[in-house]
Amino acid sequence: MPVIRNTVDMHIILLHGSDFSCCISDAVTQLYCGYGVQFLMKQLFNYCSLPMYEADLSDVQQNLQSFLKEFELSCIEQRVYQPLGQVPYKDLTLGVHLNYWPEWMSFFCGNQKLLRQSFNSEQQLKDYYGGAANAEEWLNVIKSNLQAALSVHPEYLVWHVSNAGNEEVFTFDFKYNDEQILNATAAVFNSVCHIIPDNVIVLFENLWWPGLKLLEPGLVEKFFSLLKTKNVGIMLDTGHLMNTNMYLTDELAGIAYICQVLDKLGDLKHLIKGVHLSCSLSGEYQQQFAKVVPPKIDFAALLTHIAKIDRHMPFSDTGVSEILEKVQPQYLVHELFYDSLSDMSVKLSQQQKACGVRSR
């Protein structure tokens, strides 16, 4: 069966633009006053540049820069997939979301049987893994991605911790469990982390598929004990965490669930340095969709299915501030679906008001 590069981010419809040379001289560091606790926090939103969308924008420099200022955002978090030297928006990028291969465990572990089930040919496999024919070459691909990401001099990098093939995302019959994926992720990270400067923190992001789900504190603690470097932490994705509970029916229930998981983490929650904030109430869909492989798996089928699970909608209930008070993140990333900056303006304003960081 053909493999589609179904990155978890692929269904986020972003507004993209061309490169430019400008800089917000003073990145906004806000004192979050919320509804109780005060702490320093930088606000960002998700943005990515793809050539196919550049034609949609005119005067990108003015629009994007004024947008950041209007909403008192420090900078952007963008996903970097381009080769070194071709990454745009360097002066506006504070965080970088690294490239991600949703199905990688069998390749890294050398499970030829499972690889043959996923790839029709050797060439298809190489195309999927950035030209790599084996795990050692793939590590070099990851290093190249890291070098491109580091070229923008970010404060942090985001690393997804999960594994799910195209069929698995429909059947939920996963071939690898959390512990296997966490152990392998640590091995991959330890093989490439020497090129990451000490002043750049790597934040591992939770998903609802097997990997770093944050539901078992013992696994979280073990995972971080396996990492060679200390400049690491967690990027808490609230929507992804909500996706792990298909019985949530409203925002307040979702907020309560997230807070319950955070309380269960105990001191481990201090590893959370950033938050990808969005609301995802997809329990009804997760309970009802048939857990079978569809007749045809293509980009459209994956896009539709994953977007129905991972909603990336803005919070509207002020109770969301309790999450921020518990975590006290350095970085708050409003990671939302949007069709244009005008669309994002409405959604971002709603979520900022809910958080208590926007009064108008």
Task: Describe the protein's architecture and organization.
- With 360 residues, the protein is α/β, with parallel strands linked by helices.
- Helix content is 38%, strand content 13%.
- The chain is built from 15 helices and 9 strands.
- It has helices at residues 51-54, 60-70, 105-109, 112-118, 122-128, 135-150, 168-171, 178-192, 217-226, 238-242, 251-265, 283-288, 299-309, 321-327, 341-355, and strands at residues 30-32, 39-46, 75-79, 93-97, 156-160, 201-205, 232-237, 272-277, 331-334.
- An 8-stranded parallel β-barrel has the order 2-3-4-5-6-7-8-9.
- Helix 9 links the parallel strand 6 (201-205) and strand 7 (232-237).
- Helix 8 packs parallel to helix 9 and helix 11 packs parallel to helix 14.
- The longest helix is centred in the middle third of the chain and has 16 residues, at 135-150.
- The radius of gyration is 20 Å and the shape is globular.
- The chain starts with 29 loop residues before the first strand and ends in a 5-residue tail after the last helix.
- The model is unreliable at 1-26 and 52-57 (pLDDT under 50).
**What best-fitting shape do the alpha-carbon axes yield?**
globular
How much of the sequence is in beta strands?
5-15%
The largest beta-sheet arranges its strands as: 2-3-4-5-6-7-8-9
- Give me the strand/helix succession: EEHHEEHHHHEHHEHEHHEHHHEH
Radius of gyration: 20 Å
Largest sheet: 8 strands, parallel, barrel
**Strand segment tally:** 9
